Amino acid sequence: MNNEISAYFITIAAFAFFVVCPRLGAMTNLLDKHTSLSIYWLVIVGTFASIPLLVIMTWLIRHWGLMAGVAHSALAYCPSVV
Predict the structure, then answer these.
(1) Number of CB atoms found within 10 A of residue 13's CB
(2) Distance from chain centroid for Cα 61
(3) Would the pTM of this model clear 0.70, i.e. be above it?
């Protein structure tokens, strides 16, 4: 395996571990306790629903900086803030 491919897999693994943090696990368990939805469906559907939000936030931060990403998060995740 050459260096470029191994660097690619290391980067993907690092992002996966970043996304699956203990805080996310704790929030998932809280959501499971307060809904009748299966925890597995919650994880699967929630993961797919989060992909467009992550892509938009990443694009905003890359083009307009961190404050644009924070504003997107506030609007997307807490609409009562506005």
Answers:
(1) 10
(2) 14
(3) no
Given the structure tokens 């992002």, which residue do they identify? 15
Q: Which residues of 42-66 are buried (b: 16+ CB within 10 A; e: fewer)?
A: ebeeeeeeeeeeeeebeebeeeeee
> Residue 62: what residue type?
R
Residues 8-38 pLDDT 10s? 888 888 888 877 777 788 888 888 899 888 8
Place of tokens 């996304």: 19
Residues 6+ apart with CB under 8 A from 51: none
What are the tokens at 40? 């597995």
